[in-house]
UniProtKB/TrEMBL annotation:
Protein name: DSD1 family PLP-dependent enzyme
Biological process annotations from GO: D-serine catabolic process
GO molecular function, a single term: D-serine ammonia-lyase activity
Domain Alanine racemase N-terminal: start-end pairs: 18-244
SUPFAM superfamilies: PLP-binding barrel
InterPro entries found in the cross-reference section: Ala_racemase_N (IPR001608), D-amino_acid_metab_enzyme (IPR051466), PLP-binding_barrel (IPR029066)
Pfam families documented for this protein: Ala_racemase_N (PF01168)
Domain of life according to the entry: Bacteria
Amino acid sequence: MSLIGKPLEAVDTPALVIDAGALERNIARMAAYFRGSRAVLRPHAKTHKSPRIAHMQLEAGAVGITCAKLGEAEVLAQAGIRDLLVANQVVGEQKIARLVRLARYAQVTVCVDDAANAEQISAAAQAAGTSVGILVEVDIGMRRCGVEPGEPALALARRVVELPGLVFRGLQGYEGHLVTVRERAERERRVREAMAPLIETRQFIESAGIPVELVSGGGTGTYDITSQIDGFDEIQAGSYVFMDATYRAVEGPGNVFEPAIFLWSTIV
């Protein structure tokens, strides 16, 4: 039974409730920002995990969708979304086999930070007669994934270019350790400082004769900082669609996004 448009009193509790109007306004506000930006928006689906909301974001102007994991990308592709970034590493024989199957009917890009992983994806893609887009992930201070900036990133980019079945597209760097820094000026200073080696790595790779189509990263707490950095092309912000309390506190009076998801409960 559809409860869309029904009064909240008609909803059995507990229930997770989306304010559709707030959701639509949040999508529209972020889309409006990027219409005036040099960078483009590839929103992260890990927040909503919903093909319907992803289509709303695309209709508003997003260039594609970012996913945290392969399973999210598969679901979105089955729903007709064809430009997908898996913003993490896909490892293991079974998952790599799924990745190359996905690449046969969607434009899929994945991050790598290890030559052996790139070689495994290459072998599987070649056997399947398809190709997979690759972003070399660079560690810009989060210490989670990524190669070091500079020569290590160049060496991996060169290896990706050499491998059949892979298309080197560019770099990813995620400043997740900085997106909730409370003071705006300090957040901007630290984000620009973290991004400098990533942009220098882009220039280093390009000076070696390897084209870099894009540099991708960013989040809801930094979208209006990273999008202003020369050499940074694509922003992966996702939380803005529902806008959680932490990001609202970080943004303070300048916040333009509304809470759009709530837990509806009965207290006795």
